[in-house]
Amino acid sequence: MLATFIIGLREGLEAALIVGIIAAFLRRQNRTDALRWMWIGVGVAITICVAVAVGLEILSRDLPQRQQEMLETVIGVVAVAMVTYMIVWMRRHARDLKGDLESAAAEAMDDGSAIAFAVMAFLAVLREGLETSVFLVAAFNSSQNALPSATGAVLGIAVSVALGYGIYRGGVRINLSRFFTVTGALLALVAAGLVMTALRTAHEAGWLDVGQQQVVDLTWLVRPGTVQASLITGVLGIPTKPVLIEVLGWAIYLVVVGTVVLWPASRPFPRRAVGLVTATLAGLSAIAALVTFLTAPVAPDGAGTRTLDAAITTAPQTSGILTGLTAHAPEHVAVTLDSTTVDSTDAATGNAGDTATGSLTTDGVTTALPAMTGGATTPVGTIAAPTYHQVVVPDLPIEQIVPGAPQRVTLPQIAAANGGRLPVGLDPRKFGDTAPVIYAVSADVTVSVDPDFATPLATEVTYAVTATVTPAAGAAAVLGKVATFTAIHQATAADLASVEDARDQQQAHDSRAVTIPVTLVVIAAVLAAAAAILLWPRRRPDTPADPGTPVPKPETAVTERPFEKKENTR
Q: Are the beta carbons of 393 and 442 closer than 8 angstroms?
């Protein structure tokens, strides 16, 4: 609430001052026609600004989650840029604002156009209003409760209008220079919080992945409903668990803009000294980036093994025409994962578009798994592991699995195995005395994979033997599954520990080889650019381009102020 109140007060008072100065000038000149046009321009500008604010809010709500984060990032960046420009501009022009506006108004009056006053008021209110709209929308997006934020904005605008009217009527006097300095410092704090919010939404939108290491945990300090929570998160926009890139963005923005706002206007800015210090810091940042990169730990090759040995969990079951026979489960079952491919277009739907390749080994018989498809994630310990699935047909002879399996069957055997009924589609008139049986072994393979290193963590392989009778005449008939058994590998503590160790090693590598060096290089580039601007030689206006050219002496002239009444000399 306090943050939006400051925004509404500061921006509203700027617009109110500009409109009030123009209105006071027109009132002194008895230009009621131009005053009417001025209020029309104010009304049109306010309408446009309100429409823009409402449109941005509706647009951000109707978009999907990722697109919402993208739009909020863009709005946040624009809001920070606009408020920074406004702070710097008002810092430079606060003292001369009245004179500049009255000079522009006098020129418009000389032209005799009342429309010019409407345009002046329209542009002034439109600029401040658009800044307010974008800034408030960004503040609403970063706020957890829109009602207090909206209340603060309305109160701030109301107070600004009241102060502007009081200044216009002459009943209220404000030290504008001090007012804009104080509110500029407060706005710099608010804008620094918006920088953190924009960096966070940029990461959630998938635009920014560096610098995501948590720096500090403020949950002990920021408790919901407390005063410090309202101040830290509500006003300053600081999250409870800020990450590295957010803290750096906040600190850099606050130092630069805070220096511009708080530097005394009466004291010359030490450009050269600050430039040398900035250049030194840029060099140190570049050196630190190089040292950090060269001393980074090596990235891990992987985590754990690519092959999982599965064990039979229950005794094989036989049914149908194999009832009473003993099935022998394989002694060695293993699943090997070769590669995984992520389909980014389906990432939001539970990895439904992912694929993987591998192989299944059953007692020395290797069966390729060329197109395992991804499904929903499965919790494996503390890891949310995507699962991959494929059904294959291993080349396993029936004699190896069920010794003594009948190769030919009679109708009474089929009926007895099927509960006294013949399968649908089997014609007893064309069956004959016996018919051969074909056995097919299928394996339903499911693998749960660590998403970071594509390491298989758990697997389940369900084998099924299906029998099909093929009489010499008539159609064949499926007799159903006649034997099943399952092999499982559950992730062990050692499996999970190897993944966690690899993750720690990868995080250390990414931090020292990528995140920190890139961040330091960006800081060095920003500091170098700032140092170049500060150290760039500026030619004084009174210094001629050619040293040999004499500087003409300014002629003494008596200028007449356009608003001073001439004394009657008659």
A: yes
d(CA 507, CA 515): 10
User: Can you tell me the distance from the alpha carbon of 342 to that of 454, in angstroms, rounded to the nearest whole number?
Assistant: 11
| Angle value at C-alpha 229, between 225 and 231, nearest 5 degrees | 125
Q: Is the pLDDT of residue 31 over 80?
A: no
Q: What angle do CA 310, 313, 318 make, to 5 degrees?
A: 115
> Which tens digit of pLDDT belongs to each residue from 419-437?
888 888 788 888 888 889 9
CA–CA gap between residue 168 and residue 220 (Å, rounded): 48
The CA distances from residue 341 to 157, 369, 370, 371, 449, in Å, are: 54, 14, 12, 10, 12
Rounded CA separation 185/181 (Å): 6
User: Which element (helix H / strand E) includes 80?
Assistant: helix 65-93
Residues in the chain, how many?
Answer: 570
Closest CA to 457 of 338, 305, 301: 305
pLDDT averaged over every residue in the chain = 77
Q: Is 380 helix (H, G, I), strand (E, B) or coil?
A: strand
Q: Give the model's pLDDT for residue 489.
A: 92
Residue extents of the structural domains in the chain: 2-269, 270-299+492-536, 307-491
Residue 101 has pLDDT above 70, yes or no: no
